[in-house]
Design goal:
single chain, alpha/beta, TIM Barrel, 8-stranded parallel barrel, two-stranded antiparallel sheet, 12 helices, 16% strand, globular
Length: 296
């Protein structure tokens, strides 16, 4: 039986957790979950001493932009990579870094009221099986069961047993290279992966999909149950360039209104890639304004 004093202590101990929950940034805009891929902040200035500096800069930017849900880009939290020794150094970092490190990164997002929806790892053929396995453990430490990846179809075959072992969904991200049958770009290449495993899904980038010559609205309507989240950017058709939102051919507004009308539980993530005139925070803010107006 608790005394009145004990009960008071328990009540006080619960205040930080309740405050943190109350401070969560609401990502809902007219019924649509709006967020960002943290790659959008890749050019933010930071001290560069280690990945913690960039994490702090990203979290501060998210708070400024009022973004409550993100797809976390691995390169923003990992040491720099490159050929030769740098690549091996990154491999050893992945293999040896304890999961508490990734939980501490998650805590920074939690403290800012930001939810990590998914984790981006771009898998390449030089990943060892040990590295692959560690990335799935990292996703769990971040509190997500979705890994988004820009990779190739032949890597999907290697990744299948890891996804099924860890019960983590792999969301394949496409680009606009329709000439290479090993690249994710066409509805057929996405379907090849979807047919492999129930743990394989699609992270549809509507800008790249439009540039590749396909109809993002129609694809979402047909495959909404296999899409984990969207990347929003504006590109021109015929493999055209990234442009400021509203200047390209991508049906951003139509896609947002489809999500709103159908109530599809598919987050729409800003991926800032065009050449802007302001800081990443400024440009992401412009994209968010575009989305809010489209959904109003």
């Amino acid at each position: 039986m608790y005394s009145r004093r004990d009960f008071g202590k328990i009540a006080l101990a619960s205040v930080p957790a309740a405050t943190a929950f109350a401070a969560k940034i609401n990502p809902n805009v007219s019924g649509v979950t709006v967020g960002a891929q943290t790659y959008s902040y890749r050019d933010l200035p930071h001290t560069g001493r280690d990945n913690r500096d960039q994490v702090d800069a990203i979290v501060a930017a998210l708070k400024t932009n009022g973004i409550g849900v993100v797809e976390l880009y691995a390169a923003g939290i990992e040491p720099p990579s490159g050929p030769g020794a740098a690549r091996e150094s990154l491999r050893q970092w992945r293999l040896s870094t304890p999961m508490d490190h990734f939980k501490s990164v998650k805590q920074k997002f939690d403290d800012a009221g930001v939810t990590i929806h998914s984790y981006t790892i771009n898998y390449r053929a030089d990943f060892t099986d040990g590295e692959l396995d560690k990335t799935f453990e990292q996703a769990k430490a971040f509190g997500t069961n979705i890994i988004a990846t820009s990779t190739q179809i032949n890597m999907a075959k290697r990744l299948q047993p890891f996804a099924e072992k860890h019960k983590i969904y792999l969301a394949f991200h496409g680009h606009s290279n329709t000439r290479d049958v090993n690249e994710f770009a066409t509805p057929e290449t996405f379907q090849t992966a979807l047919d492999m495993s129930k743990y394989f899904k699609v992270n549809l980038d509507i800008g790249h999909f439009t540039a590749a010559g396909y109809d993002a609205v129609a694809y979402i309507q047909e495959h909404h149950d296999r899409i984990t989240h969207l990347h929003l950017k504006d590109r021109k058709k015929n493999d055209g360039p990234n442009v400021p939102w509203g200047e390209g051919d991508t049906p951003i507004k139509q896609v947002l209104l489809l999500l709103k009308e159908k109530k599809y539980p598919i987050p729409a993530m800003v991926e800032y890639e065009y050449k802007g005139t302001g800081t990443p925070v400024d440009e992401v803010g412009k994209c968010l304004d575009y989305m809010r107006k489209a959904l109003a």
